[in-house]
């Protein structure tokens, strides 16, 4: 099951944490080609539905077994494979498009495109796109296993709304309020990043008696907000009901409804499940080495 990415790469110049001409050029190239591949268009829904079904079929192979939910993706090896099989007349994906652009600009001394930068850009796209969603799915499976009554409520709502095994779409969101609430509570409770990406202060600012000079870096404390008692009653309690009037994310809605439709998750007999994050700086990642029992629903 594709849940964990291992970025064993030389980062190069990246989309995240880079400024200036290089950032502008790579960002413009990336947005243009992601849109060409369907980002922000209606066909993205069918693409996510397909990937959700593929994930379920992969997990079905482990039905009845107790095992961790992880696999590694080594980006450098993936890019190397694309280089060996590149057909410039038939690009398959973003990596092929980037490799073609590197070749096109190779005689330009001002080019900002290189293999090293492709690795960094791809790592950022995986980290900001794939990794965040995959980690949220892993947390959601842990919470469904830890809190079986929550899983039963999800099953009841999804079975009533998505009859005959039909997959969820954006039109189903208003009819799946508990599922959306579960997604939001999963994101709050797991709080994947302790701090959001840094911002730069654009002018000298005074806040609560403190002076923040222009050009200072500030890090929004996401986890502190998610567990702030002035915003959330009993913040250390996992309770989706607190979000019954909120909106969820399209990708997670489709993945989680598809998983709950077809599979059931539980803690294996005689084992425990630790839903506290790993002890690592900045990120609240699941403890990936724990076993989950997967069963196929009729």
From TrEMBL:
<dbReference type="GO" id="GO:0005737">
    <property type="term" value="C:cytoplasm"/>
</dbReference>
<dbReference type="GO" id="GO:0020037">
    <property type="term" value="F:heme binding"/>
</dbReference>
<dbReference type="InterPro" id="IPR050182">
    <property type="entry name" value="Cytochrome_P450_fam2"/>
</dbReference>
<keyword id="KW-0560">Oxidoreductase</keyword>
<dbReference type="GO" id="GO:0006805">
    <property type="term" value="P:xenobiotic metabolic process"/>
</dbReference>
<keyword id="KW-0479">Metal-binding</keyword>
<keyword id="KW-0408">Iron</keyword>
<dbReference type="Pfam" id="PF00067">
    <property type="entry name" value="p450"/>
</dbReference>
<protein>
    <submittedName>
        <fullName>Flavonoid 3',5'-hydroxylase</fullName>
    </submittedName>
</protein>
<dbReference type="GO" id="GO:0008395">
    <property type="term" value="F:steroid hydroxylase activity"/>
</dbReference>
<dbReference type="InterPro" id="IPR002401">
    <property type="entry name" value="Cyt_P450_E_grp-I"/>
</dbReference>
<keyword id="KW-0503">Monooxygenase</keyword>
<dbReference type="GO" id="GO:0006082">
    <property type="term" value="P:organic acid metabolic process"/>
</dbReference>
<dbReference type="GO" id="GO:0005506">
    <property type="term" value="F:iron ion binding"/>
</dbReference>
<dbReference type="GO" id="GO:0016712">
    <property type="term" value="F:oxidoreductase activity, acting on paired donors, with incorporation or reduction of molecular oxygen, reduced flavin or flavoprotein as one donor, and incorporation of one atom of oxygen"/>
</dbReference>
<dbReference type="InterPro" id="IPR036396">
    <property type="entry name" value="Cyt_P450_sf"/>
</dbReference>
<dbReference type="InterPro" id="IPR001128">
    <property type="entry name" value="Cyt_P450"/>
</dbReference>
<comment type="similarity">
    <text>Belongs to the cytochrome P450 family.</text>
</comment>
